[in-house]
C-alpha cells in the first residue's frame, strides 16, 4: 500500500521544454488516479519521475510520506506497465510473469503459486505454457500486467497500457484492470489521453494541459463542475457547447446573457448570479452540455434557444442535431486526442483551427498565470489558443428523428446546468468543491 505526493514538481528538459510545470498532487492509499490530457502535456514525464527514471528539475516526490528522490528506481516498490511492453519471446507465459520473482531470489514453489494466483486473476491461467507469439494482443497485455504486479508493488504505474488494443478489448480490459487493482488494494496511477477511459476507470481524474495541472476530482466533480474552460471542453461526448455571451445586470433583478440576438435570463435568486454580475458589460463563456438542452414545441416560452438544424449525426442509440442559433462559439484548441471532433464537427473545422495556428496568431501575453491558459490573454480575443466560429449547438434527439437539416428547432435550457467561465478560461462560481 502506498501514498504518493508531488510537491510543486517541475521538469524542464535540456532544450528548455517545460514538460511539467509546478504540479502538486496527492494520491491516496489504494486509490486509482487517472492522469488525463492530450499528447505532450507531461503525463508520462510525471510517471517517469515517480518511478525514478527521470529527476525533477524542482520540487519533491514523496512515497508513503518519505522523500524518494535519492532512491534508485528498484528501491521504490513501484511496478510500471507501458503501451509498448516487451515480453521475452523465448520464455513461456509462466516464466515471463515469474521473471521478477526469479530475479529477486524467490524460491521456485512460491514462485509457481504466486504466478498461478496472478494468472488466474488476469484470466490467463490456461495459457501459462505458451510463448508470447502464441497469444492474442489482449493476452499479451495481461501477461505484461501480471509480470508487473506479481512482485506485489506498493504502487502501480500504467502508461497508456491499452492504446494498442482494439476498442472491444480495451473496454473489457478497463474493467479488469480496475477490478484487479481494487482487489489487490494497490495504489494505481494510470495515464491516458482518452477521456472516456478516464471517466469510467478513475476514482479521481487529474487533467493536464501543457504541463499544468488543470483540475483534480472524482469523475462526477470534473465532469459536473469543471475548473476551467479547457477541462469543460475536454470531457464529455458530445463536447460541451461553449458560447460567447454578453452579460447585463438588470436592476439587480436578473442577469441577461445575450447570445447574438437571443437571450437567457439568470434570476437574481440563482446562487451564481452575484458572481456572474461582476461581468456586467463584458463577455464571458457559457457552457451548455447536451443534457441541459431539451427540444420543445415552438410555442414554448421561457428559457429557450431557437435555431435551425445545420446537420444531423446519427449514432444508432441517439441522434445529434447541430443548431445554428446565431451565436458565437469558442473552440478550445489543442484538445490533442484528435478524434472527438467528429462528434461535434468535421475535418474542415479541425483544419480551421490548425490554419489559424499556422497563420502565426499565437499568444504572447505576460503577467500572472491562469490555470487554464498559462498566460493571461483572453480566450475571447486570442485566436492563437482558441478560436471563435458560428455556434452549432449540439442537441440530443431520439434515434433517426423525423426532422432534417434546415428545420427550425427550439430547445429549453436548464439554467441550473449552465457553466460560466471568464475570459481567461477560469470557472466563475461560488464556493465550488
Ligand atoms: N527526453 C526528452 N527530451 C526533451 N523533451 C522531451 C523528452 N521527453 C519528453 N519531452 C517533451 O516533454 C513534453 C511532455 O512529454 P510527455 O511524454 O510527458 O507527454 P505525454 O503527455 O505523456 O504525451 P504522450 O501521451 O504523447 O505520451 C513534450 O513536449 C515532449 O516532447
From TrEMBL:
Keyword Hydrolase: no
Pfam annotation, one family: ABC_tran
GO molecular function: ABC-type transporter activity; ATP binding; ATP hydrolysis activity
ABC transporter domain mapped to chain residues: 4-235
GO cellular component: ATP-binding cassette (ABC) transporter complex, substrate-binding subunit-containing
Superkingdom of origin organism: Bacteria
Ranges annotated as biased composition (Polar residues): 361-371
Keyword ATP-binding on entry: yes
Keyword list, A-Z: ATP-binding, Nucleotide-binding, Transport
Renumbered residue ranges of the record's region Disordered: 358-388
PROSITE patterns: ABC_TRANSPORTER_1, ABC_TRANSPORTER_2
PANTHER family: MALTODEXTRIN IMPORT ATP-BINDING PROTEIN MSMX (PTHR43875), OSMOPROTECTIVE COMPOUNDS UPTAKE ATP-BINDING PROTEIN GGTA (PTHR43875:SF1)
Protein name: Sugar ABC transporter ATP-binding protein
Annotated organism of origin: Paractinoplanes rishiriensis
Amino acid at each position: 500500500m502506498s501514498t504518493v505526493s508531488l510537491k510543486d514538481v517541475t521538469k524542464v528538459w535540456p532544450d528548455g521544454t517545460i514538460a511539467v510545470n509546478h504540479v502538486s498532487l496527492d494520491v491516496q492509499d489504494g486509490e486509482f488516479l487517472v492522469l488525463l490530457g492530450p499528447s505532450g502535456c507531461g503525463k508520462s514525464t510525471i510517471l517517469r519521475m515517480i518511478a525514478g527514471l527521470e529527476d525533477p528539475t524542482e520540487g519533491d516526490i514523496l512515497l508513503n510520506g518519505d522523500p524518494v528522490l535519492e532512491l534508485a528506481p528498484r528501491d521504490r516498490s513501484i511496478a510500471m506497465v507501458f503501451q509498448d511492453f516487451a515480453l521475452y519471446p523465448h520464455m513461456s507465459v509462466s516464466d515471463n510473469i515469474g521473471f521478477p520473482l526469479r530475479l529477486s531470489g524467490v524460491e521456485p514453489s512460491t514462485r509457481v503459486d504466486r504466478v498461478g494466483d496472478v494468472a488466474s486473476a488476469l484470466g490467463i491461467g490456461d495459457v501459462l505454457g505458451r510463448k508470447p507469439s502464441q497469444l492474442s494482443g489482449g493476452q499479451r497485455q495481461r501477461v505484461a500486467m501480471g509480470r508487473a504486479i506479481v512482485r506485489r508493488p506498493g504502487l502501480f504505474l500504467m502508461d497508456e497500457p491499452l492504446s494498442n488494443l482494439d476498442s472491444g478489448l480495451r473496454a473489457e480490459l478497463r474493467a479488469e484492470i480496475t477490478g484487479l487493482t481494487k482487489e489487490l488494494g494497490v495504489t494505481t496511477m494510470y495515464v491516458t489521453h482518452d477521456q472516456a477511459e478516464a471517466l469510467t476507470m478513475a476514482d479521481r481524474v487529474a487533467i493536464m494541459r501543457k504541463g499544468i495541472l488543470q483540475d483534480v476530482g472524482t469523475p462526477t466533480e470534473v465532469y459536473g463542475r469543471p475548473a476551467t474552460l479547457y477541462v469543460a471542453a475536454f470531457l464529455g461526448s458530445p463536447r460541451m457547447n461553449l458560447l460567447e455571451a454578453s452579460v447585463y445586470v438588470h436592476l439587480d433583478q436578473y442577469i441577461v446573457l445575450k447570445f447574438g440576438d437571443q437571450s437567457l435570463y439568470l434570476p437574481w435568486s440563482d446562487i451564481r448570479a452575484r458572481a456572474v454580475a461582476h461581468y456586467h458589460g463584458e463577455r464571458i463563456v457559457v457552457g451548455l452540455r447536451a443534457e441541459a438542452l431539451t427540444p420543445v414545441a415552438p410555442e414554448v416560452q421561457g428559457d429557450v434557444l431557437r435555431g435551425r438544424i445545420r446537420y444531423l449525426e446519427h449514432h444508432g442509440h441517439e441522434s445529434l442535431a447541430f443548431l445554428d442559433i446565431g451565436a458565437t462559439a469558442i473552440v478550445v484548441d489543442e484538445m490533442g486526442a484528435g478524434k472527438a471532433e467528429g462528434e461535434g464537427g468535421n475535418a474542415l473545422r479541425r483544419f480551421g483551427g490548425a490554419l489559424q495556428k499556422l497563420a502565426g496568431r499565437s499568444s504572447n501575453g505576460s503577467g500572472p498565470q491562469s490555470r487554464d491558459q498559462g498566460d493571461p490573454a483572453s480566450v475571447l480575443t486570442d485566436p492563437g489558443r482558441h478560436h471563435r466560429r458560428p455556434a452549432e449547438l449540439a442537441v440530443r434527439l431520439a434515434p433517426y428523428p423525423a426532422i432534417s437539416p434546415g428545420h427550425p428547432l427550439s430547445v429549453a435550457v436548464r439554467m441550473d446546468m449552465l457553466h460560466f467561465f471568464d475570459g481567461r478560461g477560469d470557472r466563475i462560481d461560488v464556493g465550488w468543491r
